[in-house]
User: What shape does this take?
Amino acid sequence: MPDRERLVRTVTELIRIDSPTGEEDAIDAHLSARLSDLGAAVQHDAYGNLVATLPGNNGSAGEPPVMLSAHMDTVEPGRGIQPSLDANGDTLRSDGTTILGGDCKAGLAIVLEGITAAMEDGGLGRSVQVVFSRAEEGGLNGARNLDFSLINATNGMVFDGEGPVSRICVGAPAQNVVQCRITGVAAHAGLEPENGVSALLVAANILTRLPLGRIDHETTSNIGVLEGGLKRNIIPEQAFMDGELRSRDQAKLENYTSEFRRAFDQAAAMYPRAQIDLDIRNQYQAYRVLETDPALMDIARAVTAAGLAPALETTGGGSDANVFFEHGIVALPVGIGVRDFHTTRETASINEMYDAAVVCQKFIRPA
Ligand SMILES: [Zn+2]
Assistant: This one.
């Protein structure tokens, strides 16, 4: 069985190692050493993602390993985090000036504890492939650059979801990033305003044409950044927009992407002297698994074996699981006992982390 005290020790150790996106070397060294001590063959790909393989002992030779994944980076403010346990002995939180980093240190700790417990209780049933990615936050860049030739797992679990481990994420949206640079014509605002074309006005015109917000139950969009202009008395020549479209339905994503393009074209027609450079790029694909999917049933079995009731959910956010899915690996996100991701109110429940470690152990060692 997992050891609660050891789990608390591990997660607080990991939280104390700063690892904002792009600065994962220290935590990577720590995790690599821990996995080597467990007997894993630890590798890194060119991007720095950690891939560790542990052989099973349950006559599983020839079967592909199962993947256990989490990510090593955190968002900001995530430096010098001081984790402490509430008087209830269960809730871990920061001092309120930083995030906790439970996303995804809780996930990393759960994987280490699940493997350790399985080894203490007679060894791994199945071969395991641990994938700890870099730069998940802000674009899944680690997973997108993962050297998939190192991976032979075809299914697994991604320990990176909110709430209890019984929450299994069976559907997630695709995301298109929408960026636009608008070049108008600069002119003195007092002397010759009629000679200028305001890039900000063009941007505003575009904004009013776009379908934004929650478009339907599985589609959202946002323009999150609008920048531009130089000085009060100059007609703004430059504007920049950064936004996104997401849908769990690929056809809808394509339809709304076309609608976005039309809105930009209409604005361009209204302002012929402005130049509009629109760039819409797919970041990751949507996924959806059926209740009968063997990879899902494998996880649900482990959740049930831990005495919990699986809750199948969909999300509005992407994760490394989206990228794994594109490469034919069905590794679904589950809860890691963490709440209020990416805020200074973030908490982790030790009880729920413990449950997740039990599920991890049951997953890699089927009875
Ligand atoms: Zn995360």
About this structure: The first strand starts at residue 41 and ends at 44. The longest helix spans residues 250-270. Residues 71, 103-104, 136, 160 surround zinc ion (CB under 6 Å). The chain has a mean pLDDT of 96.
